[in-house]
Amino acid sequence: MIGLKSQLLNETTLPKVMVIERDPVSRCLIENLFGEHGFAGVYFDSFEEARSHLQQAGNEKYDTVLCEYSIDGEECISFIKELKELGSNLAIIVFSALESQAQIHKAMSHGAFEFVRKTVEYSKLLEVLQAAVKKTHWQRHLHTTAKAVEGIGQTQMALLNRSSDETPFKTDLIIYPKLDAGGDFVSRFDLGSEKYITMLTDVSGHDLRAAYISAYFQGMVRGLVEGGKHIIDIFNRFNSFLADEWNHESEESSMNTSVAVSGVMLDYSEQRLKILCCGAPIPLYYEPGKVGVTAGEQWGYPLGWFPDAGISPIEMGFTEGACLYLWTDGVDSLADELEVNFMSVISRLAQLDKDGEKPDWFQYADDDIMVTRLQFCKKTESDELPVFFEKYAGSDFDKIDQLQNYWQQSLEFALPSTDVGLLAGIILPLREGMLNAMVHGSSKSPTKYSTLQADLIENQRVLRVIISDTGPGHDFDFNRHEEEADLELFEAHRGLIMMKYMADELTLERSGAQITLKFNLQA
Amino acid sequence: MRHLLDRDTATLTLAFEQDILSTNVENLRKELSQTFSDPTVTNGTWQVLYLDLSNIRLIDSAGLNFMVSIIKKMTEKGVQMKALISNANLFRTFKFTRLDKHIQIDYNGGA
Predict the structure, then answer these.
(1) Does residue B63 sit at the A interface (CB-CB below 8 Å)?
(2) Taking the model in full, what pTM does it have?
(3) pLDDT per residue as tens digits for the range A117-129
(4) In a 10 Å sphere around its CB, with 0-12 CB exposed, 13-18 middle and 19+ buried, how is residue A289 labelled?
């Protein structure tokens, strides 16, 4: 290594270049170039020497690397790869007197910043050096920022947990960021007198711009809430800001920003919820043992799309022990990719979260994922987890074979440790129940809906399935029917018999318009 | 649905190759009707109808009703019915709907 003395003089001011080059003539030319144009070079005779130096000194003190393509038979490729694997942001310039197209391609495809011909391109080298230094600085800046944004999830959890002792409900959070930066965020505001607001926000885009808008939105909401503004006014105000100012300004760049948000106003003393849904998936209210209720039927527009956001809140009561699920549309798109129900994805993520596993199927996600569950019962944690929820029109009866496959796939996904044969035995009564609901309860109508819901009762390892339609049901003496079907060989109505015997427990409500089936998953 | 008449044992075998469900049961009824109209079957002498259900995983209530219609038809003809079942869930279905009282089941699946 040479030139250390002169470099020490310039250490704090000049861009520092690691030069890996043995040829004395080249070194001389480089030193001259550096001296004239304000670079500080640190010189190494081999990749091995440079490698061991970086191991001790780290790569942060350098601004770029200039290396010969090959020294003593060792190509620069392994050196470049090692730096990349170490997460280095150093831009690497490769130069060579004996370059070939294959060499250039190889170096560039392994992550070199630029390839420069040694003999004729010293002037070009200067331009490339300046660009490489900029590139390194930019990469480092991005890396630092992305790290900070990655920490948002942990920060949110810490913030929510810190204030959760003061709330009469529990907030669970599942976060799986797909990309380094994004705008998914959950926040909670205490309005006093047992009134709270919880918001799940998803800003369009997956970059620092989205993260910035998200942070701006959270701050604006907090400020205006504390100033006594109503949440609907705040949403409308932010909608105007996005539609009239922000997106208007950026119209030419076609970088319009929208914010999908689910907002929940919670009055704990009155046990009432007011839910605002602007472009986010409709929240699901879930009360153990009962059919889940969606907070409305339509997603509504995200903030920023139209001057009038058309916000219409849904009001509902809640009971102790119930939950409200909010999630971003990343869950729905992952569920679509996996061809399973969205609740199967949420429940699987909830189970993984407990185990701390990293799911390999997450590679199919094309968006960040965020789920929050508000549990209206602080002391006793619910041991019930919905694993499937879907509504079907009566006219869907003719798709029953596809639906059956979808149910099986969803349950296998949500309950991975359950015997597949056992799940196959569950599907048949589901088919019977849903056919009955769609054909008789909903009269095959495209406008009448029946619900299929499956819940895992974790501590008993029991799957409870609820099938509910809006029809009047049917008066039915089950025992007499079963006997007649056997003795007189009726060619009809064996579905109920199948459901009774294939489930471990069958309960009928509303004259059979709602049936509950329980299956023991401990084979 | 394939069929095979074995004159030595006087057995007509019907081999089902797909699950018997509400969505295909009408086609199966038609196929069965064609089979029973086939001259070799009509003119042949057979005392046993053997349903090969070894490739079947699922039968729903519409499928069971189809089975009942076959049982009724065969009872009128004085034909004995047998079935080969390999799937545990299918076997359970025949047991709890008590169709095993009308069809002699050969079960070769697991517990």
Answers:
(1) no
(2) 0.71
(3) 876 667 788 888 9
(4) exposed
Chain A closest CA to B48's CA: distance in Å?
20
Question: pLDDT tens-digit profile of A397-406?
Answer: 999 999 999 9
A517 near A468, Cβ under 8 Å? no
d(CA A138, CA A153): 24
Measuring CA to CA, which residue among A33, A32, A51 is closest to residue A128? A33
Mutation site for B-interface testing, chosen from A404, A422, A487, A498 by largest number of B Cβ within 10 Å = A498
**In a 3-state reduction of DSSP, which class is residue A330?**
helix
Q: Cβ separation of A502 and B58 shorter than 8 Å? A: no
- The token duo for A7 is 């470099």
Return d(Cα A513, Cα A449) in angstroms, integer.
12
pLDDT (0 to 100) of residue A2: 47
Complex ipTM more than 0.85, yes or no: no
B111 inside 8 A of chain A by CB: no
Contacts of B96 in chain A (CB under 8 A): 497-498, 500-502
- Closest listed residue to residue A460, CA positions, set A384, A377, A381, A379: A384
Of A486, A487, A415, A413, nearest to A456 by C-alpha is A415
- With an 8 Å Cβ cutoff, are B68 and A431 in contact? no
The residues pairing with A303 across neighbouring beta strands, listed in sequence order, are A259
Query: How is residue A245 annotated by DSSP?
Result: I
Burial class, A185, CB count within 10 angstroms (exposed 0-12 / middle 13-18 / buried 19+): buried
- Cα–Cα distance between A489 and A499 in angstroms, integer? 18
DSSP string computed for chain B: -EEEEETTTTEEEEE--S-B-TTTHHHHHHHHHHHHHSHHHHHS--SEEEEEETT---B-HHHHHHHHHHHHHHHHHT-EEEEEE--HHHHHHHHHTTGGGTSEEEE-S--
Question: Taking 60 as the threshold, does the pLDDT of residue A356 lie above it?
Answer: no
Work out how many CB contacts closer than 8 A connect A with B: 66
Name which of A400, A490, A501 is nearest B23 (Cβ-Cβ): A400
Question: Alpha-carbon distance B59 to B49, whole Å?
Answer: 19
CB contact under 8 A, A485 and B97: yes
> Per the structure block, which two tokens stand in for B60?
């729903």
